[in-house]
Amino acid sequence: MRVSLIKSKAGLTKFLEYEGETLSYSIITNKRLKHLYIQIDPQKGVIVKTPYNSYEHVHHIVSQKAAWIFTKIKATQERITLPKLFEEEGKILYLGERIFLHVNQTPEAFYKEKTIPLVIRLVEEWSFIMGVKPTKIGFRKAKKRWGSCSHMNELSFNLSLAQLPLECISYIVIHELSHITHKHHQKSFWNCVSEFMPEYKRCEKILKNYSPSLS
Fold this sequence. Notes:
single chain, 215 residues, alpha+beta, Zincin-like, 5-stranded mixed β-sheet, 7 helices, globular
């Protein structure tokens, strides 16, 4: 297994050859961290954040995780992204289906028009069924998150949600509503989600094929 290092103003980049393929990764050292983290970013590539000063130690861990890293990279490359789909095919996603966008409309305007009323309706329906009530519903563009619930029970949803199959949108709504009574991801939280959507794990697998980012 061969290793190369390149040091630049941006930091340290290392190269690892694994089963005929070359893996490059950047190292960011932060002594305040407790553990080493490996992040795979579609734009920035593989980033290793570590509290360790020993690059040899970091490389040893990355070498052990090489198979996992390449699997994650492949999954990231196969993920459907809205910008790529629009650029290559002139299409966008709506409820899981590829459609052409109206010539006078932007993707952002389309998703704002479709996502907001759909999600508000689903929140109202599931809030009644689940016996909970959010204090506020908001929408925003986000690169990594589909939704969130604050400690004040304010729900925030990604404006690109309308790209997903309807079942997955419902799952995200149920997921965030469940956080109103369960501010964690422990067993009681997942029991709550499962009570209202027994097949939620299938939705989680489907979501791995999509990207929340509009840009």
